[in-house]
Amino acid sequence: MHLAGLSRLAVVRTHSDRMGWKAAQKLIHHWKVLRGDNVKKHIKQGQGHEGGIFSVEAPLHVSNVQVIDPVTGKPCKVGIKYLEDGTKVRVSRGIGASGSIIPRPEILKIRSTPRPTTLGPKDTPMEFVLEKTYDAKTGMGMPDL
Question: For site-directed labelling of 25, which of 2, 62, 97, 138 has its Cα 20 to 30 A away?
């Protein structure tokens, strides 16, 4: 899936003539939860609460959501390309797409769990990393089993 969290998305529904521009909140399996009102919920009046029609957040399937092209501002499909320096980027493709690079949200560039900077108890010390322990020509160095 090329939908990154917190991207600008367009809600595309075939049974509705409206198209909403939302920011993604989270992805649960193949369901995208968007910020804002996705569904109108009818609640019956009861003891302790009023009835009526309320807007609630509800998950949408990813097939009903498309990323917004940053240049044209229209919904588009997403493709993957590699730049000359080897960097992997998302590009817009399809009808009404400019083919421009879709930027990755800044919040996703920050790691939720930072990489460890110190050696752990199961890490090999640096003085033993480059030590030659096996000779391919003679087959020596392998443990006798």
Answer: 97
